[in-house]
Amino acid sequence: MASSTDSAYLADEGISLGLSLGYGQLDNPVYKKDDIPLYALPRIEVFAGDFSFANTQFAWTPVWGDNYQVSLFTQLNEDGLYFAKHSAALTAIRTTGGRPSMTPPPPGSSIETQAVIKRRGDITKISKRKLSAMSGIEAIVDWQSWRFSAYWSMELTNYHKGLQGALSAQRLFLFDQHLVLLGAEIQHLSAGLVDYYYGSAQQEIRAGFSPFLGHSSQKYNLKASYQYQFNQQWQFISDIKYQRLSSGIADSPLIDDSNLLSFYAGFAWNY
Asked: Which of 215, 216, 251 is CA-nearest to residue 102?
């Protein structure tokens, strides 16, 4: 979930530090896993020429212009946060994107969708899912108050050898000291990534879960952010994000909810 720090489309040279205190939660879709509470969100950003670090993302931007840029980046994978401890998840809050589904079924195919029967078990006995790191390329184009972006990434940590991509669009509104950001994005996750985090194999079956083989899937996201700038150091920030998981993830017996709502509101101090 975004911490509102990226919503002005601006980046400065040097070091930027901040801390937000408030309340929110990251909705966790995994069965018997608690939602992740959000209280204190740090912001650590370093910009040095074409290189940058923002919270958990490293980026190099060799190609850029007045209204576009192309970057190579490395960042943590979102899905691993659902299985990580809360302390690890809080340090990895970030914005994520997506990729649209491929071609729809041909007209008249009328494939019947059967109800999925999930058998639950002991979530504490499933195989361990590790937080993976992804690296890839991202392209951004700014047009008036719009920002369009696309990225494609592959895994570095060799846990699942998965791929992930995104298409997103954001619209920025500025009214004096008020800032509103609306966005939509579609993520595409490869079969390897989905199966690693949401698949149910031998150990999960022994723990009582029904079998499930993950395949390439999508996540559909809608976001809204609001900021009020009191002065150069203090601001009020708020974010809300709705995410829908496609059936390739939602049908997993490890998933308890396919509609996720995450939010945060608080006061931020910037140094």
From this structure: 216
Cα–Cα distance measured from residue 41 to residue 23, given in angstroms and rounded to the nearest whole number: 10
Tokens, residue 174: 């500025």
Q: Which two tokens stand for residue 6?
A: 């990226």
Extract the tokens encoding 147: 């920002």
CA distance 205 to 126: 9
Cα angle 85, 91, 92 (rounded to 5 degrees) comes to: 90
Supply the DSSP symbol for 258: S
Q: What does each of the 271 residues of the chain score in pLDDT, given as a tens digit?
A: 434 434 444 455 688 888 888 888 888 899 888 888 888 888 888 888 888 888 778 899 898 888 889 999 898 888 888 887 765 555 555 433 333 333 333 444 344 445 667 888 898 899 999 889 999 999 999 999 999 999 999 999 999 989 999 999 999 999 999 999 999 999 999 999 999 999 999 999 999 999 999 899 999 999 999 999 999 889 999 999 999 999 999 999 999 999 999 999 999 998 7
Exposed e or buried b per residue across 55-68, where buried means at least 16 C-beta atoms within 10 angstroms of its C-beta? bebbbebeeeeeee
Cα separation, 70 vs 120, whole angstroms: 44
Tokens representing 115 are: 């109800």
> Which fold would CATH assign to domain 15-99+129-270?
Porin (2.40.160)
- Which candidate, 90, 86, 69, 70, places its Cα nearest to that of 22? 90
- What the block records as the tokens of 124 is 């504490």
The domain limits of the chain are 15-99+129-270
CA distance 225 to 62: 29
